[in-house]
Design goal:
Elements: H1 2-5, E1 11-15, E2 21-28, H2 31-37, E3 43-49, E4 54-60, E5 79-83, E6 89-95, E7 103-108, E8 113-118, E9 130-137, E10 143-150, H3 154-157, E11 162-166, H4 173-191
Antiparallel strand pairs: 1-2, 2-3, 3-4, 4-5, 5-6, 6-7, 7-8, 8-9, 9-10, 10-11
Length: about 200
């Protein structure tokens, strides 16, 4: 109820296949920025393990007009930086311009594209819908996984979202962390409620 009047900082639980919590993620951002800049706000997301240690950090700077039709300009595209441990950049998730719908590149620490993520041109909150964001190889030849948001009736009565992801287990652990950051950026970009 409080969120209808004042945007609260986001919190996430990261669960494994057995529904056991492996991480907790909490947003750090200014309350005025949350209120005035909405889903475009800059933020730090602290990733905490079950021993209460911060093991990763996702950060994004505020960019005016991020994600709008101004996407033609690279300087107006969103960039999420992934650090693990905190202070060591291991990769980036960059918004890319694509006329057919949302597109992101998953990049390593050297800013080389490892995977691409695409989404539907229209993301609607229909309770019978599951929104898919396929993860494809850098050369667009193979789908290697998917990020999905399960839309349900709870989206109409609260602010809880449920995401799932599948990707090869044998990929570099740093890229797995960057893919986790991609889920967070997708949530902010497409599912964070505006004021």
């Amino acid at each position: 109820m409080m969120e209808t009047m004042w945007e609260k900082a986001n919190k996430y639980k990261i669960l494994n296949k057995q529904s056991e919590q492996v991480y907790f993620v909490s947003e750090e951002s200014d309350k005025w920025n949350r209120q005035l800049q909405g889903p475009d706000r800059g933020f730090n997301l602290r990733v905490i393990d079950n021993t209460s240690q911060e093991v990763m950090r996702f950060s994004r700077e505020f960019i005016c007009c991020a994600g709008c039709c101004c996407g033609y300009y690279e300087s107006l595209r969103q960039v999420l930086t992934v650090e693990a441990p905190v202070g060591e950049v291991i990769g980036y998730v960059r918004q890319e311009f694509d006329k057919s719908g949302p597109c992101y590149s998953v990049r390593d620490a050297e800013d080389t594209i490892v995977y691409k993520i695409t989404g539907p041109c229209c993301v609607c909150d229909c309770p019978c819908n599951r929104v898919r964001f396929p993860i494809v190889s850098a050369d667009d030849t193979e789908e290697v996984g998917v990020i999905s948001k399960n839309l349900g009736i709870e989206n109409y009565f609260g602010d809880a979202d449920t995401f799932g992801s599948k990707f090869p287990q044998d990929i570099d652990v740093k890229i797995k962390a960057v893919l986790l950051g991609a889920i967070m950026l997708i949530d902010f970009s497409h599912f964070e409620q505006g004021q």
